[in-house]
Write a structure and sequence with these properties.
With 539 residues, the chain is an alpha/beta fold. 48% of the residues lie in helices and 13% in strands. The chain contains 18 helices and 15 strands. The protein has helices spanning 23-41, 57-66, 70-87, 101-116, 180-189, 197-208, 241-246, 248-251, 260-269, 282-295, 327-346, 357-386, 402-424, 428-449, 451-458, 462-486, 491-500, 512-515; strands spanning 7-16, 45-53, 94-97, 120-130, 135-137, 165-174, 194-195, 214-215, 217-218, 238-239, 274-278, 304-307, 310-312, 315-316, 353-354. The protein has a 6-stranded parallel β-sheet with strand order 3-2-1-11-12-7, with helices on both faces. Strands 5-4-6-8 form a 4-stranded antiparallel β-sheet. A hairpin with a 4-residue loop joins strand 4 and strand 5 (135-137). Helix 12 runs parallel beside helix 14, helix 13 (402-424) runs parallel beside helix 16 and helix 16 (462-486) packs antiparallel against helix 17. It is elongated. The two termini are 53 Å apart. The mean pLDDT is 94. Bound molecules: ligand ME8. Ligand ME8 binds at residues 13-16, 24-25, 27-28, 53, 245-246, 248, 277-278, 280-281, 309-310, 316-318. Ligand ME8 binds next to strand 1, helix 1, helix 7 and strand 11.
Length: 539
């Protein structure tokens, strides 16, 4: 296998298959998709993974309640996730399901390694458990709830607010407490490893408050990967669902098999460049997961980026709160690209963000229908009228473009670095805002240079004819460049604009920096006006 480009391996959480995907799960997946598309366009060898977390008590209970076996249940619901991602034009390269045979081998292999290294031991667990979050809680986490002090009362989960269950069982533990100093040092040496900064601080203070060993097997949950060892007289146990789930990130790139090509892929792909997660699951990803990897002698992911939550009327959107919407309802109204643009532009990635119908309509009408869509339709129709529908000849000679043209070109020339800087900070909104400077500059340029006036005398006056050609060429060139930059967020629209300019699809570019340099639009290409890209909608 030749590996001549740099690997960029990125992941989303694997979602619980207890229901269909909603806007929250789609949000993480979309953000990861935009990053995957951007990195591909910059020439990285991207591997984008998403998938499903199919084991555990929560799934077992949902299946039973619906009258299915757990396997039937996950098989029934899994396609809804794949279909939703296809509908949203998610470009994942792999889709992992934790019920796969390969994943079972991978989990058992990692567990064996940790047993061999002395990091797993037998113990007894007594304490609180949140089934919906599949998370253990210590007494100190519940300190502010008086009721938590005895096992016959029922405290609430500090995270999701639902009643906890008291669990007493003999099972197996991972020596998480051993790794507190290692983790503190690691995060001190690698400040980028958890972002944004607020989340990093949260992780550090959690570690400083003391880590407890973690129970990694369950005696009374049948729906899971069997522990690969049993001691005489013991009933079989299954792996704790988070221990199982986190390992998906290495299963998907070849861990746990004897096959040479898998080992080679693992060496090439691991560690991951970035795990995208919501802030609700940061402790699993920034404490448990790196400790497991380190204990097994494996490198740690380069970065975990924990974004905020989508809020509806101030509350986290979630199935349990009954305020969850499915992407299909919005895609039907706003189109796939309208949907994608809104979530990437209007919600600051990293912070909680309120979403509303009004804001969506406003963004759609203002940024898409007015600014971007209108630029394309009025420009392309002028090219049809004044240049017989062809890109006018103009070599992009900077000495002939005039002051306004030079300003427009400068905005375009500055964009690569601005966009790259924004993406390096996961600032999607900032990247789009920078791109919109070019959209606005192109609209202003048309206003200021008034091609419709130049066209009036172009037939008799060569200077006016040249000026008209320059203006339309420059504006078309800006449109070509905008289509390239917006492709990670709005792939179909960008490909459509490129097709109307007689160009290859924007989404297939792998050298964004070179391709966005000014002056590459070939003169003579047919320009097709086509239907409006975005139709204004009523509030
Ligand atoms: O936690 N806003 O799965 P899950 C933004 N299986 N993002 C949201 C959101 C909201 N309102 N609601 C959900 C699990 N999310 C485990 C993960 S990984 C090894 C195992 C997103 O189905 C966000 O990414 O509960 C959050 O972290 C994830 O969905 C939780 O998905």
């Amino acid at each position: 296998m030749t590996r001549d480009r740099r690997s960029y391996y990125l992941t989303t959480p694997i979602y619980y298959v207890n229901d269909v995907p909603h806007l929250g799960t789609a949000y993480t997946t979309l953000a990861a998709d935009v990053m995957a598309r951007y990195r591909r366009m910059c020439g990285h060898d991207v591997l984008f993974l998403t998938g499903l977390d199919e084991h555990g008590q929560k799934i077992e209970q949902a299946a039973t309640a619906a009258g299915y076996s757990p396997q039937q249940w996950v098989d029934k619901l899994a396609p809804a996730f794949q279909e939703t991602w296809q509908m949203l034009h998610i470009s994942n390269d792999r889709f992992i399901r934790t019920t796969s045979v390969q994943h079972k081998h991978s989990v058992q292999e990692l567990a064996r390694r940790l047993l061999d290294s002395g990091d797993i031991y037998r113990g007894s667990y007594e304490g609180w458990y949140c089934v919906p979050d599949e998370a253990y809680w210590n007494q100190k986490d519940l300190a502010d709830q008086d009721k938590a002090l005895s096992s016959d009362s029922q405290p609430l989960c500090p995270d999701c607010g639902r009643p906890l269950k008291y669990v007493v069982e003999e099972n197996w533990f991972f020596r998480l407490s051993h790794y507190a100093d290692f983790l503190l040092q690691y995060y001190e040496d690698n400040p980028q490893a958890v972002q944004p900064e607020t989340r990093r601080n949260e992780v550090l203070s959690f570690i400083r408050s003391g880590l407890h060993d973690l129970s990694i097997s369950r005696a009374n949950v049948a729906w899971g990967i069997p522990l690969p060892w049993t001691e005489e007289g013991d009933a079989p146990q299954t792996m704790y669902v988070w221990f199982d789930a986190l390992i998906n990130y290495i299963t998907a790139v070849g861990f746990g098999t004897d096959d040479d090509s898998c080992a080679e892929e693992f060496a090439y792909r691991w560690p991951a460049q970035v795990h995208f997660v919501g802030k609700d699951i940061i402790r699993f990803h920034c404490i448990i997961w790196p400790a497991m990897l380190h204990a097994a002698g494996l490198p740690l992911p380069r970065q975990v980026f924990a974004h905020g939550h989508l809020l509806v009327k101030g509350e986290k959107m979630s199935k349990s709160k009954g305020n969850a919407k499915t992407p299909a309802e919005l895609v039907e109204r706003f189109g796939v690209d309208g949907y994608r643009y809104y979530f990437m532009r209007d919600v600051a990635f990293g912070q909680d963000g309120s979403i509303s119908d009004e804001a969506m309509v406003q963004r759609f009408n203002g940024d898409l229908a007015n600014d971007w869509g209108n630029l394309v339709s009025r420009l392309f129709s002028m090219v049809g009228k004044y240049c017989a529908g062809k890109v006018p000849a103009y070599g992009g000679d900077p000495t002939t473009e005039g002051a306004e043209g030079a300003v427009l070109r400068q905005v375009a020339d500055d964009l690569y670095d601005r966009v790259a800087d924004a993406y390096s900070r996961f600032d999607y909104s900032g990247a789009l805002n920078a791109i919109w400077d070019l959209v606005r500059a192109a609209n202003r340029y048309l206003e200021d240079s008034a091609p419709w006036t130049l066209a009036k005398n172009a037939e008799d006056d060569q200077t006016q004819a040249d000026a008209l050609a320059q203006v339309l060429y420059s504006a078309l060139e800006a449109v070509r460049i905008i289509a390239l930059y917006t492709a990670p967020v709005m792939p179909s629209t960008s490909d459509e604009v490129c097709a109307r300019l007689g160009l290859a699809p924007a989404t297939t570019e792998i050298d964004l920096q070179r391709k966005t340099q000014w002056g590459q639009l070939p003169a003579g290409n047919e320009v097709r006006k086509g239907e409006p890209l975005f139709l204004r909608m009523e509030a």
